[in-house]
Amino acid sequence: MKNTLRQVFHAPKFVTGFVIFVLILLTMFIYPLVNPGNPLEMIGVGTFAKPGIYVSMYDATNTSMETLRLPDADDKRLDKLLSQTDRVSMIDWFDATGVDITGLDLSDTDTLLTLWNANYDPTVKPKGMTQAKRNYFKRLDASIKQINASDTLIVSDQAEDGTLTEVRTISKTDYVNTSQVANVKALPLGTDNFGRDVLKELVSAAGTSIQIGLIAGAVATLIGLTLGLLAGYVGGTCDDIIMFITNIFTVIPGFVLLILISYSIGQEQRGASVVAAVIGLTSWTWTARSVRSQVISLRNRDHVNLSKLSGHSLVRIILTDILPYIASYVVMAFILQVSSGILSEAQLSLLGLGPKTTEVPTLGLMMNWAMLYSAHTNGSWWAYFPVILTITLISFSLNLMNTGLDQVFNPTLRD
Amino acid sequence: MSEMRTRTVKDYSNAPLCLSGRGVTRAFGLGEKRKLAVDHVDFDFHEGEFVSIVGESGSGKTTLSKMLLGLLNLTEGQILFQGKPRDISTGRKQREYWKGIQAIFQDPFSSFNVFHKIDSVLLDCIHMRGGRHLSKEKKIEMMTEACSFVNLKFAELTNKYPFELSGGQMQRLMIARIFLLKPRILLADEPTSMVDACSRATILDMLLDLRNETGMTIIFITHDIGLAYYISDTVYIMEHGRFVESGNAEEVILNPQAEYTKRLISDVPKIHEEWDLSTVDLLRAE
Amino acid sequence: MGKIMLEVKNLKTKYVTRFHEDVYAVDGVSFRIEEGKSLGVAGESGCGKSTLALSMMGYYFPPLHYISGDIIIDGTNISGMKPDDVRKNILGTEIAYIPQAAMNALNPTQRIIRFVTDVIRAHDPKADKKEIRERAEARFAELGLPRDVLDKHAVELSGGMKQRTVIAVSTILSPKVLIADEPSSALDVTSQKMVIKMMRELMEKGYIKSMLFITHELPLLYNVTDDIMVMYAGQIVEKGTAREMVFDPVHPYSHGLMGSILVPEEGTRGSKLTAIPGTPPNLKKPPQGCRFAERCKFARPECRYQAIPETDFGDGRMYRCLLGVDQLKEEYSHE
Fold first, then answer.
1. Which of A66, A263, B37, C163 is the most buried (most CB within 10 A)?
2. Out of C17-21, C89-93, C168-172, least confident range
3. DSSP 8-state secondary structure symbol assigned to residue A320
4. Is residue B190 classed as helix, strand or coil in its secondary structure?
5. Residues of A whose CB is below 8 A from B110
6. Strand C38-42 relative to strand C64-73, pairing
């Protein structure tokens, strides 16, 4: 036993898979300690805030300022203001009005602006340009002018009668230290469609999904193992009946069955553990079949005969003479069942048949929400891509562990 | 080869019956595929007798041995144990029967549960004989005695697993197990076919000692007619599920009557007599 | 003295286990076989006799590795050749190998003629179908195999017939050396006898020039081969003619081995079988002195550390023991 464990932990594939899986588990336990709170709390009002660090503007204006004269501050400001599309549009304008732009570099903001200020005229109507496009250029011009216009902004307080009292002026050279701003929020993966912190949600969802996988795997393995052992060892009519049931379950596509059961249970009853149990109940068949065939080949081994001759009971023979021989196989089957349980939950949830949506996030539900709110079409990759990556990583690590075990227990498969 | 042991065959026909069979039959398959693996065989094994059942692969000798052990049901016929029809219809009766008959199988490597230590294999035997209440010292004494009977040292075996032993040592451990159980009948199914020639002699001698010390009946199943001749008092020659010849080993081997026995003996390579290759015809369709 | 067909000089090969340990399975084996002669190899399982057979082909694939030594077939040293050259030019024409489970190696979806074609074409790619069939039919007829076997699939043949077919197919190019590793052990006695009879015919008709026959069944070896050598722990411990080896063995190990022979003949019943206690040494770390010393009844203290010389009688008889022949004979007479 000790020796086997040593061998298992020397198999590179198993160790890699194990390390990945343990890292995921550790994140699940440690992250909530660092960032406590309800993962489903809607902190954002809009949908799909981009990943990044958010600084409260209100607090920032009320924080003591330092003056920093940074030589490239203006350039950076302009750079940030002029998007790539704007720059291309400016070239369009130059083209339409016949300005010579040979040798102009798009990223050269200074030259671009000099050219623009020299050549833009809102009254010119270049041939073939729509009114909308001309208005766009007017807006662009206005915003460029604004940057250049004043060096200060005035923050004012509005009294009840509508009079504005100046509270503070902010000049271009004023800076605040983020550590002094009262409210700074890091959202490494942004927010989702309901304005929830995606990272927090993801960590919690991975935990729930692994739980679902474990429950589903345990249920499937337990049912499959029990039926397989009985069918294989007892044989005869018992075998026929069990195999009949197993065949029926095999013939009906498991996923269809899963959908039907999930649907008939109804949204309200579907907690995470119910969904897990349903997944387990529909995926035990192949465990049962393969356990049965292994048991049949063991049943006629001499040590089982000898155990019978020693007068041992059926239960004892199954537990001590059969089960240890297939234990390694059962562990491997369990790992695969966990992995497929997680994937099944994701599939079900994607179809909207997963656990009810108000209590806990799962990886599948996160995918479902991202899909419903078109995250994939509006470019909000952070709402679904990290989820896909997590699912992949979990099932990759589980499958890697399984392959590693396979190599240890079936040395003939090596190389 | 200096010490010649006088082992003239003892006459067992008057000894009490131990195990006998009348019309023992076992069929496999159904309908047209139905095949009789063992076809209405009769036999009488006496107390203290060393019996060999000789047959080639497919002769049904293993099926017969499974039926004798009660691991396989009879299709027809009955087996009598100590003169009375054998009854193994319930688990309790089965366990009672198995106190009287034990086995050593062909493949020592698959005969042991690889997850159990040698101690637990032997302890199990003591418990089966109702020795559960014995003191620990007494149990160790019994195990040591059993191991020394088969020339193994219990102190070296304790806390080891069976697969750490060689094939020959494992078969000897099996004999030690039998020594502890002391059944009335021992069924040995080709116990030496997977061990080396050098260890074979040791195992055979131990089986003979076991019989001489405890007076148990030994049923020895083998394909090797030379081996059967060396070790047994009585031989049964089996072909296609039937006994074609049986009787005193000396008579059957040195003066065979049945065609099959004659052929079997003539086809085995020997060292004193010429091995006559002309008895086989290469063109004969097999 | 006839022409030497096969000569092996100080051959050493090893296995590398999956834990990267070296097992020296064949450790300094030398022997020669003359034209028309056969040599038998006896020994218990794990003594290196099957490894010797594999090593003889000069064709090594992991976990088996060549260390040193020469294999000379009819004057050609094949031990340094590339595996591809060995496969193309040596296997089939110079040397043929029949393992114990040869009959199970036949692809069940192919007819027998296909295997014959493969063997002949490997040597002569241009051979045409008609020629191959004629050649196969002629050889099969001479070896007493029915002609229709050629058009059958392997599954339609009985075990004995399959094994004979395999032998006939692998010797169709009349190799100089046939290496047979337990070719009849999985068969019943009658089929075994037929296999042996066929191999003897191959020999008598000159289709094979010499044979190395490996088996653990001593009575069979005695009846099949001219000479016998006994292997123990990767080394040859004794060699001589079959009669000498069975009735007058010198080395304590062969003495024990020959004393355990069981045949259905008068006198066997009363005899006492010799038993050798203990197990063979671990070949990962072979003992320094005599490899058999641990189990030998007559071992002297110096046997355990002294290098053991080979005593050669010159007539092909040799043994490897520190004790003299007379000393050993004296010991045996006290038994």
1. C163
2. C17-21
3. I
4. coil
5. 301-303
6. unpaired
Q: How confident is the model at residue C101 (pLDDT cuts 50, 70, 90)?
A: confident
Could you tell me how far CA C78 lies from the centroid of its own chain? 18
**Amino acid letter for position A321:** D
Checking DSSP bridges between strand B185-189 and strand B101-104, what pairing results, if any? parallel
| Helix orientation angle between B197-214 and B167-181, rounded to the nearest 10 degrees | 10
| pLDDT for B3 | 37
SS3 category, B186 = strand
Pairwise CA distance, residues C224 & C218, whole Å: 10
CB B218 within 8 A of CB B210: yes
Contact call for residues C33 and C212 (beta carbons, < 8 A)? yes
**pLDDT above 90: residue C274:** no
Q: What are phi and psi of A38, to 5 degrees?
A: -70, 120
Cα–Cα separations (whole angstroms), residue C302 to A326, C310, C323:
50, 16, 11
A24 pLDDT higher than 90: yes
Is B77:B25 a contact under the CB 8 Å cutoff? yes
Residue B193 near chain C (CB below 8 Å): no
- Contacts (Cβ under 8 Å, ≥6 apart) of C21: C284
- Please give the ipTM for the structure prediction: 0.86
Q: How does DSSP assign B238-251, residue by residue?
A: EETTEEEEEEEHHH
Interface check B94 vs A, CB under 8 A: yes
Between vectors from CA B229 to CA B225 and to CA B230, what angle results, nearest 5°?
120
CATH 3.10.180.10 fits B17-111+186-277, yes or no: no
| Contacts with A324 from chain B: Cβ below 8 Å | 113, 115
Looking at residue B1, what is its pLDDT? 34
Q: Which of A253, A254, A279, A252 is nearest to A265 (CA)?
A: A279
* CATH class of the domain defined by A2-40+193-413: mainly alpha
Q: How many residues does chain A have?
A: 415
The number of angstroms, rounded, from the C-alpha of A378 to the middle of its chain's C-alpha atoms is 17
Task: Kindly state whether B148 is in contact with chain C, defined as any CB-CB distance less than 8 angstroms.
Answer: no
Please, what are the domains in chain C? 4-105+173-334 (3.40.50.300)
CB C215 within 8 A of CB C42: yes
How many residues would you count in chain B?
286
Residue C222: what are its φ and ψ, rounded to 5°? -60, -40
Q: Which chain B residues have a beta carbon less than 8 Å from that of A317?
A: none
- Kindly indicate the confidence band of residue B286, based on its pLDDT and cuts at 50, 70 and 90: very low
The owner of tokens 């190899």 is C41
DSSP A191: B
Quote the mean pLDDT of chain C.
Answer: 89
List of residues 6+ apart from C10 with CB closer than 8 A: C28, C29, C30, C68, C69, C70
Per-residue confidence (pLDDT) for residue B4, from 0 to 100: 37
The residues on A that touch B, with CB distances below 8 Å, are: 301-303, 305-311, 313, 320-321, 324-325
**Is A306–B106 a contact, with Cβ atoms under 8 angstroms apart?**
no
pTM of the model: 0.81
The torsion defined by the Cα of B66, B71, B73 and B76, in degrees rounded to 10, comes to 30
Phi-psi sector, B57: left (phi>0), alpha (psi -120 to 50), beta: beta
Cα separation, C194 vs B147, in Å, equals 44
Q: Which of C271, C258, C178 is nearest to C218 (CA)?
A: C258
Under 8 Å between Cβ of C23 and C284:
yes
| C-beta atoms surrounding B272 within 10 Å | 12
Rounded Cα gap, residues B52 and B225, in angstroms = 9
Which residue's structure tokens are 């009971």? A313
The tokens for C122 are 């490997």
- pLDDT band at residue A291 using 50, 70 and 90 as cut-offs: very high
What is residue C232's predicted lDDT score, i.e. its pLDDT?
Answer: 93
Q: List the domain boundaries for chain B.
A: 17-111+186-277
In chain A, list all ranges with CATH 1.10.3720.10: 2-40+193-413
